[in-house]
Specification:
22% of the residues lie in helices and 27% in strands. The protein is an alpha/beta fold and 186 residues long. Helix 3 links the parallel strand 5 and strand 6.
């Protein structure tokens, strides 16, 4: 069995993504990804749900939510198990056609396990013409690099849709631009 990347937690703070910065980051991601002309946005529940809905609205394409989870709890600073189960509820993917262009989104790429599991699962079902990934945050310990992300983090992040956190939080710094995976050499 291969080892799972370990998320980096410096334990200096708990980052807080404000609703305002979330909206700003979503607009930046939508603007960048529009050039790739996705035909659907696939959100990974739970964290990617709101991002998927907002991006889909901005890109004028459907949002589809899939379930992929490997954490056994929502406890802060929990390391990834590496075991990810992926599924969709009912006919969630029924409206998508084989060969479509997909944008898969989540709130964070912690270890990379979830995005690494969802991509092949979708490829097996839909054989997309392209499959891109975007997240709000990427943990520095992740061994998966999304196509697009906002913040690189080395501590726990609290998102606007999550409940209150014990102890103080520090707002993520304003996002001035996105990071992108380097293009593969031709």
């Amino acid at each position: 069995m291969s080892s799972v990347a370990q998320r980096v937690f410096e334990s200096r703070r708990t980052w807080q993504l404000t609703h305002r910065e979330f909206l700003h980051a979503a607009c930046l991601i939508a603007s960048h990804e529009a050039g790739h002309r996705p035909e659907a946005v696939i959100g990974i529940a739970r964290g990617g749900t709101r991002l998927a809905e907002l991006l889909a609205e901005q890109l004028h394409v459907p949002a589809v939510i899939v379930q992929a989870r490997h954490n056994t709890s929502d406890a802060p600073r929990l390391q990834a198990s590496g075991h990810v189960e992926v599924h969709s509820d009912g006919d969630a993917l029924a409206g998508l056609t084989a060969g479509c262009r997909l944008l898969v989104v989540d709130d964070i790429c912690g270890s990379g396990s979830t995005l690494r599991a969802v991509g092949p699962w979708l490829t097996g079902l839909l054989r997309p013409a392209s499959l891109r990934t975007a997240v709000l945050c990427r943990n520095r310990g992740a061994d998966f690099t999304p196509d697009t992300w906002g913040w690189s983090v080395a501590d726990w992040v609290r998102f606007p849709w999550e409940g209150p956190v014990d102890g103080p939080t520090e707002p993520l710094p304003p996002l001035s631009g996105l990071s992108h995976r380097a293009a593969a050499a031709a």
